[in-house]
């Protein structure tokens, strides 16, 4: 789980081009949108693309996406729940 | 005193008809143009509904009298078919006889044809007739092909403000007439379906896999369409001089920007409200004078909520009849403003209000519902036509009955 | 059209050192292809990091030029934002076309699609300065910038705006450079800007740039007196139109103190300039500009920027810009003091 979260942070930084951000700057539970990292609705679409390209998980409904993309923690939990044990 | 601007000719092609009369017939019969693509090479062909013009590109070339002419894209041919009808409708046999403007609109120009040969163009080892499509990549190509075919050359321009493009083309042409730069401007837009735009809107997750449901609680996005429409605008003095038949008056317009987000409107519909309010003020009409609003109504979550709020703010408890005709034509992007401006003219001319198809449940954020029935013999004198788009671009037009 | 349209301020990003400091024209040395690339400033001074991270090249360039122009004009929020661009964000259009192919139409990032929309720079400018008024984008090759200017002039004439921000931007990508080379738009052999007028070969040197202007009815040192566009004209019609255009402004060719011409050394089209100068301006100083910025759809915006620079430094009463784009779109812009 920790390894997955670190990898996710690196992938988020790369996908969203968060140039001055390092993985350790992102708190596992900090909100990605609004305050937190200050991401917006286009970023949320990009993060869904990230999930699809890297983890082969397709999120169809933007409303569902919003729940999954609350924080790195919720993203990691969602990815784990979709992967075979 | 600036001159009044009259609409003296209309021409169009869409998924529900290859001329104005066919469009009117389909609206009356409540026949949608939505279905699945025959012509686009895409993995979404059976899943994402579109409103495609049924004619193939060679068939369109034949309709436009351009058979065997090289380099005409589907976008240019759709436009030419609509342009020819608009001139004919205005009783203009020779468009070159008078210095005129052609103000066109497009969002992706000849992409429909370019995307099919793009990687061949990039491949130095390939040569062939596809090279004639190199210059069709931009939006000006279709405009010039159409202008050249009918001989309009005093002013030639192309506007691209996403989904409000052709409403802005109409405004620009009308303003040129009021400035006295020209006495006649043919304005509108043309748009062909492309793999590019289908994937673009799909990547934004705002295409509905069902037929679109504007202003419905369960709406889930738009469906793309294609088509072209042009309106012949003429100054009052030219109309008198040549005894032209007036179809309606373009009495007001306004362009605003949301300055809110690259792809989303403000939740309270500030831009939509400002555009409608100012267009109405310019027309010298008040809110009570409006009988019908042809809304932008794309059926995306954001648009309809925001546009609905704007209607409630402008009209209070007396919102006039309103409907989105996008379930008939799909969202034709740069052509939408002109297609719907023609529907506004028809609404006045036929005293008719067109139904908003696929509606079943009121949106929870709103107190209003669209008109779902075809209303005939309805006294329509003033129509607001809305077009809103990416980049926060909003445009509203007021089209009024000609009363001498 | 009635009224005078005064230029309150300008800004340009170009292959020259035009963005800050004193401008001195420089002839670049091209290394490998006939393309003059812009010198990009540090965008971080103009755009917030959170916005900057997603923007592609021409968006940053256009937005920054627009913001700088407003600063140079002392205008916080204009009453209208109008731009012209021939090609918009080529990088985004290309990226989305490649993504569609590479990922077989699945899992596509929407950003290049959004940014490929021609009005995206306009939207960003409006968003950054919170301008909710008139906003328009023209996309018509060698008329894109000119229609943006005409629209701005009409708004001022209608009394609907006090300050209008009008400008243009175009970039050249490697891919589109290659595409245009397939139809002979550029010179085949590597040609330096200093040799371009004497090479005697077909094709131009490619270029790119962004230039913005604030126009208003409030008097300033330079104004746009007139603008005339000509679509696919014959040589005779260019000449007749010039005569009528000058006459309309009460001028003779000899009243023009400086002619800024779009000569590019392209033997296919330079005859328009040669014939015009020979007949009307044999004694008038002529300054070409495409050796400085290259050829692109909205190169006339750099010419206007250059004209304002010259008029601020020299005693010139009337300056005329004549430009044409691959023979199709011809433009006269008349400037006065």
Automatic annotation (TrEMBL), chain A:
Stated name of the protein: Acyl carrier protein
Domain of life: Bacteria
Cleavable signal peptide: none
Pfam families given in the database record: PP-binding
InterPro entries per the UniProt record, alphabetical: ACP-like_sf, PP-bd_ACP
Start and end residues of each Carrier domain: 2-83
TrEMBL record, chain C:
Protein name: 3-oxoacyl-ACP synthase
Domain Beta-ketoacyl synthase-like N-terminal: start-end pairs: 44-177
Top-rank lineage group of the source organism: Bacteria
Lineage: Bacteria, Pseudomonadati, Bacteroidota, Chitinophagia, Chitinophagales
GO molecular function, one term: acyltransferase activity
Organism: Chitinophaga cymbidii
Pfam families named among the record's database cross-references: Ketoacyl-synt_2 (PF13723)
